[in-house]
């Protein structure tokens, strides 16, 4: 799918509208047309261009991590093959170097996933935190605005999908490390003749036989020639002679184990975690700001598909016409319609005895829920003229005026209230019909 997708654009627009002065054009006919403003704002370096550039940086950072892991895998193997004049390699020391830390990391990851299975963790992990830190440093020198960077990481690393993103990066890095180790091991075995030996002070011979036979179970399914009991016993460090067949069996055992117990599981887990990350992202519910924007333009698209006939609509719904803000009397049927009390701290007016519905808009959550539930029916919002409207109030009514086509501002306190003129000015600026209420 071509990036940026519609969902990515919507997430960027919602974040910018909530955290900056940016606003999508209200005159756009639909959401797709409105989101095009991200390409041209600011004029020389659009928000969408910055967003796409950040994604390229993020992908390059992940690829750089994989390259570093690959190089570390290639570097880790040669010291273990430094045999000197004896030409002997401790087979189980090789296993510890190539698969030991991999197995330990896998166990820690598995326990962590079980422990957080039913939790919504917001942690980003060391790898992801490092990548985000590097990306932010680069963005500062690439003319990318701070709010765009914050919007990108909010979109790229959502809380409920974070652990799958971290897991896919971790498994991918380990897969690169192990694959590089497997390639270097194959190269060294092709160009060097070594005797595979083992030695112990505390363990018995039987323990090594049992361990080797256990690890040989899966490789045997593929018909690979592996060390038998005689090969294992003949490979003690104090036994000098070792046949070519024994060396071949140990080499097959080593290469097969690295591939089957290291590389393939990591690649499979990378694919699974990456798939789950994309599934979680795809099924993520829209945030409240995203719903507000979507409903705003869905309503406008619906209106543009129909011709409004003024004769069939009552005067109380005149707010559907643009720039129709006016100071008129309250319609006769208004008290039986839907009402909301905005940042209301006093008793409910006696006049509002039996409205169709009455809701409070006293906090951010209530206001977001109100904006996320648009309606074509008449809606009256009662405001207290003794309290001054602020920037948050202006933002709320700007969004509400586009979400509710039949919205009225009712100013409680009369014409002589302290901030009555401020509320009237706000109503005119947001193109809302308003009326006093005492």
Automatic annotation (TrEMBL):
Coiled-coil stretches: none
Whether Phosphoprotein counts among this entry's keywords is no
Annotated signal peptide: none
Q: Specify the superkingdom.
A: Bacteria
Q: Which residues cross the membrane?
A: 57-79, 91-111, 172-190, 253-277
| Key words of the record | Membrane, Transmembrane, Transmembrane helix
Name this protein carries in UniProt: DUF2868 domain-containing protein
């Amino acid at each position: 799918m071509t990036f940026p997708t519609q969902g990515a654009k919507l997430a960027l627009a919602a974040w910018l509208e909530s955290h900056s002065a940016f606003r999508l054009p209200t005159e756009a006919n639909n959401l797709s047309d409105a989101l095009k403003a991200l390409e041209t704002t600011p004029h020389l370096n659009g928000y969408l261009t910055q967003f796409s550039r950040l994604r390229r940086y993020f992908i390059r950072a992940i690829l750089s991590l994989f390259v570093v892991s690959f190089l570390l895998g290639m570097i880790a193997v040669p010291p273990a093959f430094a045999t000197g004049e004896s030409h002997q390699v401790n087979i189980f020391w090789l296993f510890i170097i190539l698969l030991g830390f991999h197995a330990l990391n896998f166990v820690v990851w598995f326990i962590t996933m079980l422990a957080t299975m039913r939790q919504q963790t917001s942690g980003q992990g060391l790898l992801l935190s490092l990548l985000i830190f590097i990306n932010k440093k680069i963005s500062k020198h690439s003319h990318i605005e701070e709010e765009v960077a914050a919007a990108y990481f909010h979109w790229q690393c959502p809380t409920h999908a974070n652990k799958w993103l971290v897991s896919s990066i971790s498994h991918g890095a380990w897969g690169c490390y192990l694959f590089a180790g497997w390639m270097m091991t194959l190269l060294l075995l092709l160009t060097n003749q070594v005797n595979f030996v083992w030695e112990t002070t505390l363990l018995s011979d039987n323990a090594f036989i049992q361990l080797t036979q256990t690890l040989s179970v899966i490789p045997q399914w593929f018909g690979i020639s592996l060390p038998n009991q005689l090969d294992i016993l003949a490979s003690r460090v104090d036994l000098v002679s070792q046949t070519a067949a024994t060396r071949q069996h140990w080499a097959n055992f080593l290469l097969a184990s690295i591939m089957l117990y290291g590389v393939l599981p990591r690649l499979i887990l990378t694919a699974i975690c990456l798939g789950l990350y994309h599934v979680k992202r795809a099924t993520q519910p829209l945030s409240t700001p995203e719903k507000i924007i979507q409903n705003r333009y869905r309503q406008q698209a619906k209106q543009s598909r129909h011709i409004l006939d003024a004769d069939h609509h009552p005067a109380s719904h005149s707010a559907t016409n643009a720039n129709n803000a006016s100071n008129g009397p309250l319609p006769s049927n208004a008290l039986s319609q839907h009402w909301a009390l905005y940042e209301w701290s006093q008793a409910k007016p006696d006049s509002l005895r039996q409205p169709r519905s009455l809701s409070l808009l006293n906090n951010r959550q209530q206001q977001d829920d109100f904006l996320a539930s648009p309606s074509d029916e008449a809606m009256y919002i009662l405001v207290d003229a003794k309290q001054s409207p602020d920037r948050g109030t202006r933002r709320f009514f700007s969004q509400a005026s586009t979400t509710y086509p039949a919205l009225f501002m009712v100013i409680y306190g009369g014409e002589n209230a302290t901030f009555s003129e401020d509320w009237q000015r706000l109503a005119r600026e947001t193109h809302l019909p308003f009326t006093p209420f005492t």
